[in-house]
Design brief:
53% of the residues lie in helices and 18% in strands. The protein is an alpha+beta fold and 217 residues long. Strand 4 and strand 5 (105-111) form a beta hairpin. The N and C termini lie far apart (39 Å).
């Protein structure tokens, strides 16, 4: 298995080569221009995302979510999430590619149309539904893994404060995100089991396990 350092090194080398071959494009990239400022553009991205198509989400709901999304640009080698940090927000990947790693080992490659960070947002929503204050829910739901950009990426962020009321209006998205989250936690559990005992019992890993049960009681 390649380590995170290998991934970042390769990504940065590709970026340097691309800049040499396309100086004009590199100059524009350096400005971190993100073309997803309008609600219409963000809605078009969501319509192509896997999470909105496994269980069909209607256009009205997509537009509601698009209004709350915050676009940003991240360059190769940049961390979008770090293990142990508060898991807010979640992201939809509009362009580019990322790698999700735990303890330096790859868990998953992320491509355009995928989302990440949904595990913590789901846990926060479940905790809030049981009466746990939002700030306490946020502090208890920590990232279980790192996500690093492999190339220039455009992402759309959905924070917990906006996700909580939206998820109740869009059950199809909620159920799909739960399915994605369960699959990812299986990968995290397997990777953590192969790590040292102290790593497998880190705070972020335990909290991600407790979150769903708190909301399901």
């Amino acid at each position: 298995l390649q380590t995170l350092a290998n991934f970042v090194s390769i990504a940065l080398e590709k970026r340097r080569a691309s800049k040499k071959a396309q100086p004009k494009a590199a100059a524009a990239e350096a400005l971190d221009i993100c073309p997803l400022e309008s609600v219409e553009e963000r809605a078009l991205v969501l319509k192509k995302c896997m999470a909105f198509n496994i269980r069909k989400v209607d256009d009205t709901c997509i537009n509601l979510i698009a209004q709350k999304l915050v676009p940003s640009v991240h360059q190769a080698g940049e961390y979008l999430t770090r293990k142990g940090e508060v898991g807010d927000p979640m992201y939809f990947l509009a362009s580019g590619a990322c790698v999700c790693t735990l303890n330096g080992q790859e868990l998953e490659r992320l491509a355009k149309g995928q989302c990440f960070g949904e595990v913590c947002i789901i846990n926060m929503c479940k905790m809030q539904s049981t009466g746990i204050p939002s700030e306490e829910a946020r502090s208890r739901c920590l990232r279980a893994a790192d996500v690093v950009a492999l190339e220039r990426c455009e992402v759309l962020a959905l924070n917990f404060e906006d996700a909580w009321p939206l998820m109740r209006k869009v059950p199809n998205l909620w159920y799909t995100l739960q399915d994605i989250a369960k699959q990812r936690m299986v990968r995290v559990t397997k990777q953590a089991a192969g790590s040292s005992r102290s790593q497998s019992r880190s705070g972020s890993f335990r909290l991600m396990q407790r979150g769903p049960s708190a909301g399901e009681r």
